[in-house]
Hints:
The complex is a heterotrimer of chains A (about 270), B (about 280) and C (about 350). Chain A is mainly alpha-helical and about 270 residues long. Among the domains of chain A are: about 1-30; about 70-230, Orthogonal Bundle (MetI-like fold). Chain A has helices spanning about 1-40, 55-60, 65-95, 105-110, 120-135, 145-170, 175-180, 185-215, 220-225, 230-240, 245-270. The termini of chain A are far apart. In chain B, helix 7 packs across helix 9 and helix 8 crosses helix 9 (about 185-210). In chain B, strands 1-2 form a two-stranded antiparallel sheet. Chain B starts with a helix and ends in a 7-residue tail after the last helix. Chain B has 12 helices and 2 strands; from the N terminus they run H-E-E-H-H-H-H-H-H-H-H-H-H-H. The radius of gyration of chain B is 23 Å and the shape is globular. In chain C, the strands form 4 sheets. In chain C, strands 6-7-8-3-9-10 form a 6-stranded mixed β-sheet, with helices on both faces. Chain C has a 5-stranded antiparallel β-sheet with strand order 13-12-11-14-19. In chain C, a hairpin with a 5-residue loop joins strand 12 (about 250) and strand 13 (about 255-260). Helices cover about 25% and strands about 35% of the residues of chain C. The chains are: A mainly alpha (about 270), B mainly alpha (about 280), C alpha+beta (about 350). The interface between A and B is large, with 78 and 79 residues.
Amino acid sequence: MGAAARRCWGARVSRLLLLWLAAGYAFLYAPIAYLVVFSFNASRMVTAWDGASLRWYQELATDPTLVDAALLSLRIAAGSATLATLIGTAAGYGLARFGRFRGRGALEAALAAPLVLPEVITGLSLLLLFVMLEQAIGWPRGRGAGTVTLAHASVSVAYVAAVVRARLADAGTTLEQAAMDLYASPARAFALVTLPLMAPALLAGWLLAFTLSMDDLVVASFTSGPGASTLPMVVFSMTRLGTTPEIYALATVIVAVVAGGLALLSLLRLRAR
Amino acid sequence: MVVLAVPWIWLLLFLIAPTVIVAAIALAQPADGVPPFTLGLTLDNLALVLTDPFYRDALGLSLKLAAVSTGICLVIGYPMALAIARAPTRWRDPLLLAVMLPFWSGFLMRLNAWIGLLRDDGLVNALLAWVGIGARHLLYTDTALYLGVVYTYLPFLVLPLYARLARRDPVLEEAAADLGASPLGVFLRVTLPLSLPGVWAGCALVFVPAVGEYVIPELLGGPQAQLVGRVLWGEFFQNRDWPTAAALAIVLLLVLVALPALALQALRRRPARSPA
Amino acid sequence: MTLAITGLGVRYDDMTALADLDLTVAPGELFVLLGGSGSGKTTLLRAIAGFVRPWTGRIVLDGTDLAPLPPHRRPVNTMFQSYALFPHLSVADNVAFGLRRQGLRGAALAARVGEMLALVRLEAMAGRRPHELSGGQQQRVALARSLAPGPRLLLLDEPLSALDRSLRADTRTELMRLQRRLGTSFILVTHDQDEALGMADRIGVMRNGRLAQVGAPDEVYERPADRFVAEFLGAANILVGELAPDGTFRLPDGTLLRTGTTGQAGPRLLALRPERLRLEDGPNRLPGIVVAQEYAGESVTTQVRRPDGSLLRSVQALDRGFGAARLAPGAPVTLGWPPEACIVLPAT
């Protein structure tokens, strides 16, 4: 009798765990659902429903500040992600394939540092670097999109390296050895085997770097200059004055793009299978 | 080795050099000019940051925010990670993706949602009134601040924790039950201790950014939420006091390096119990 | 301790893992469950331990039905195939795990742990972590840990399969010595017939979620219940024919064989163990031609083709060396055996 009750207790724990998970998802998604719903609100109120309308999407599309900032952010994100992918791949490849070499530990630590550094420190230190560089060698002249791109790339290198390294470590070296055994030179083996092997990691790393850049406010605020305001910077200054449905519309567009992209990716993966 | 030279030069330029520069400016004299300091070797800035109650309180408040938020994230996130790790294999990836998805949708956007939700006339207060707790002032309070931090960083805790829990060996849990451990005992004596590396990793990913957090206190917290990130930002942008900002950054960095070391020492000192 | 299983059925989704299974294990018995993969032997073990919930049936231990009890309430312990040692605990803490759950503390706990470690001769390893031990040592820790709480019944899932061949024989002896000394009933699962024959008081041969036969090792080997058991346990030459009421077995080509058994007339199978077939004339005889010989050091297996094309195997002990037993392929031979070597089996 008591024992039977105890077994039910075990089953109840599992059910409780699932309930907790569902509540966690509700917590994570309720604000997003709220954003999406109220972006279609007719009134300026963000608290009371006043009928459906596309008014805020119209305002969003015709707001030159937001549109310009979005275009600038896209450029910076694409540039910094590409730069970070190039350098991060070299670092990840080196760590995964070169085994023991002098300074390996230092490189690993240095690569991990940006992952565990508060943003304000990263932003401040990179700005001071740019200021000192300009004083010393006259480059970079002033600050703007270029310095933000460099700053974002410098943060993202660590993430790309981690992704690439994990992928290469998973794959092992037998495929490359097989290619070389079949008369491929090391360079050909790299191009024909290693690169395709890394391709998903490169894409994942690039996308991660792109998102980090699009989402960053603090590092961009430190390293940007007058006239070069990224989308988060503009949204931040708007938000400080109070939240508006226009921002909700922008959020909904971003959510739609992300969800659409993910759906496309999973569809491609299903096809590939 | 050429492959490695590029990342090395890159890290040297964008990680090591900037850190050295911050340290140098933390030791410099404030001055009127562009840039607003003259290089030197003074400990005044560091001494000021360490002794002035304003900065010390900011540091204390930040550490408290980070510690409490990390704790709350752990309480919310551990059962979530465990539930995902115990789900059937084909469900795990979608469930995990669902945890990460909010992270991809822009954190400023989600903070905007909370600003709308937490307003005095917002939906959360309407809900609180409806269930009978009664409406209260939420936005620009510590409640909003903690909520924002927990909400933003929860996925970062779940991810590494899940990775660890997914690799657990269910046979060990069976063995514990077989030896007489109740479901709670199995969790406390086997599942939890074996997941600790994931717990530490997840906690670090919440704690570190939370300590230096600038945006969330600025948007959700009240004016009283003078945290290190905000103070540093103010010294730099409003007061143009670069040496003090740099000194704050250095102190924050040292605290972040010292904390794990202290924690490790405490763990090592704890005597291992042995029945034999 | 007496374990009585009646009408046990276990289902996974829509697959039947165990069907209407009855089994009784006596106090102090070493019972071996033998079967191929997927035969249900591990499922049976897990049902007794409480890790799978039976669909029907009862598992009664000394008058208590275990079925409604969760694993941690059952006076039964398991030694897992992978050992399942807790990597974060020392050897001593692993052994102490079940004892602590029983409320044992302090000196009594230390004494019992010491006693168990002495039993498996690992006192010196008490402070080590499992990954610092060899495979054989880990196996002994797992054994000590599962025996420490003093289970009335110990379940062992392939306890020797992860060990090197050379270590297995010693460990087998060691396991049997411990079992006799402690008097604990063991149910041991294996797919290794040598292990089963060498260790068991009784063997249960499993097939498709059922017990095909239960009996002492020699009983199961010498009087298998059906063709499956005869071929699963050891090798068997199978001949098809008809049994006459007087015990004469008639092959399709008209050859008559004396079986020494009587029974209802009708179609039957005749199983002949290769080691019972001699390459010389006997009370029963079949002619044939040598196809090949396989030398195995202590014995040699000779394949003989009968005139109808079927093959028979005969194993000779080489107690006088290979030279005397060597035969060239194509040489005519006669296989001979006594009536009592005939195993008459149902036709299907």
